[in-house]
Amino acid sequence: MGMERAQDRRMTAAGRCARALLALALLVLFVPGPAQAAAPHIAARLVAESPAPLPGGSTTVALVMTPEPGWHGYWSNGGDAGFGMQVEWNLPDGVTVAPFRYPVPEALILFGMMNHVYEHPYALLADVRVDRSVASGSDLTLTGIANWLACTDKICVPEKAVISVAMKAGDGAIAPATRRQFDGWRARLPQPLDRPGKWERRGDTLRFAVPLPAGTALDTPHLFLATRDLADYAAPQAFSRNGDQLIVETRARGETTGVAEGLLKLSDGRGLSLRFEPGTVPAAGKAVAAASRPDAALFWTALAGAILGGLILNLMPCVFPILSLKALSLARSGGVAREAKVEALAYTAGAVATALLLGGALLALRAAGEQVGWAFQLQHPASILILLVLACATTLNLLGLYALPSIGGGQALAARGGAAGGFWTGALAAFVATPCSGPLLGAALGATLVLPAWAALPIFGGLGLGIALPFLAVGFIPALRRRLPRPGPWMDRFRRWMALPMGLTAVALAWLLWRQAGPTGLFAALSAAALAGALAFAAGRAQRHGRAVAPLFALLLLLVPLALWTNHAARAGGTAPTDATAFSPDALVRARASGKPVFVYFTADWCLSCKANEAGAIEREAVQAAFDKAGVTTLVGDWTNGNPIITRTLAEHGRNSVPLYLWYAPGAARPEILPQILTPGLLIGKAQRR
Q: What residues does the Thiol:disulfide interchange protein DsbD N-terminal domain cover (predicted)?
């Protein structure tokens, strides 16, 4: 056996030598002449996210690589026969450039050699930091000489180009189109795993343990190692499951020790970057098929969490004003079984359909490279403007200023009975419920980050079903219907009282527009409210004189240019509390370096659960005193207008919605995720334990 193993090692060494000689031959035989060098097979272009980076801050540059058909470039570790990008920078004073970050590569075997490649256009991203001492208006043009390897399945050509991008120190402004382009490139980067894995060598076998939830979708997974001379790149990789550990086994190559770096390719081009520490790797478990199915337990747990979370949302103030409309409708029906069942089913259909549409739009935007999460539509002032008009119109209707016509829009249908009224009330309830993220809901929606689209969509549908459950129960359980009050004069008084929460909702939406877009948003809110009031008054007069009112609602088209203007004026992010520091990865690193506890919370002005926690726990005087005594640093991530950095951070912690609360104890490797409902005692206890 020993002789056979030694012979295998000699054959493996011979194979490696042959492959190295073949790679050298390819490089030597096919090095291009001067004429060829003038026309690279992979075009390189340097782009800056902000042409005017702010002194004391940073921006991102992208080195966009566009291969000709049939050609490919390489990852940072090119594998057996390639190498990544190498740049010799010529930097202005006060400017530093971080190493490039690479998107998820593909595995390509040629002549028995494993290559880690890109066969399509790709972008390498690097952070550029500008020192605070740099004067505004200074020339910050970046130039460098880039070297890379371009290959086909037959030849390899080392290529070189001078790359450059003009920049001047300024205000850090980023054009919306450029931001979207960079967000698309960032979406293709691997997400960092928040926990290290383990690796060990047993004889000629290299074993890795990746801490990965059992339900994570895997479609032809591959482990790319950035640490060189550790594994035989071309050797088969065996994947198996041991609980929440993904075990990877392959053939070892060298004698490397210490921490190893790698990238695990998942499904749909997604990937996770992680580090492996030397340690004991659990035994291999159930083999992972080439196209792994998501774990059934994760799916059913997430679905149950979404349904229960949606049910709890009925108690949230963001949904209650809409439910008042349906309460009036059910009371008006007098408990008639058939009418109640029809309305309950229609209400459920509306809530589920809206949740599925929002979830489908979210998944589609992610697939297109956008960094978005749940409630993404509320990050756009145009959506808030629409909700404001609906809230104003509903308030005035409940006050009796006018009666809704039978052919109005979604809000008009919401106030009617029958199937149409039930459907649109359910749709409206699901739409306005998105600012709330109650217990169970954050983890349930976070599961959609690792589930494939076909498994993630039912989770969103479960949210809609949970919202509709109370009315579904009333519609089909006679005992509940018998408890409904009988129709009578009280209904008119109740209806007028329900105008109060709806009016407060309109005021809150106006405040949110002001927070999102400043004076422009406030002007838009007041204009929308005035237009809704004028239309309601005109509709009421027309109805009293027996005239049609439907044409009046065409005037709502006047809101279209106002909405576009408001969207254009929206500020990037909300306003963090004055006693807190805005969250950024750099700010978190600096805060943790102090050796003191760090409390990070992610919020949005439209998130009522967030604001309730802030007023009831975070901003309480006793909590702040305990934080001051313990030296706790508080960082705030404001997601009001959307922020791709915050979206990625939420995803890294298994969330795609706010609130998210993280507690970093001194010296802890990873944060503790706190409950979505905070209490002063919980935060004070954390600060005192330190």
A: 45-161
CB 49 within 8 A of CB 60: yes
320 and 458 part of one domain: yes
Three-class SS of residue 432?
A: helix
pTM of the model: 0.49
The whole-angstrom separation of Cα 250 and Cα 239 is: 9
Cβ proximity of 125 and 100 under 8 Å: yes
* Of 649, 570, 567, 643, nearest in space to 182 by CA: 643
Give the CATH number, domain containing residue 56. Answer: 2.60.40.1250
Q: Which domain holds residue 648?
A: 581-689
CA distances in angstroms from 566 to 176, 198, 396, 562, listed in the order given: 14, 50, 24, 6
CB atoms within 10 A of CB 380: 17
Q: What is the pLDDT of residues 467-517, one digit of tens each?
A: 888 888 877 887 777 776 666 676 677 777 777 877 887 888 888 888 777
- Residue 177 inside a domain? The answer is no
302 in the same domain as 360: yes
One DSSP character per residue, 40-71 reads -SEEEEEEES-SSPPTTSEEEEEEEEEEPTT-
Position 597 scores a pLDDT of 92
DSSP annotation string for 592-637: HHTTS-EEEEEE-TT-HHHHHHIIIIIT-HHHHHHHHHHT-EEEEE
* 190-203 pLDDT per residue, tens: 888 778 899 999 88
Task: Tell me which H or E stretch contains 21.
Answer: helix 2-29
Mean pLDDT for all residues in the chain = 78
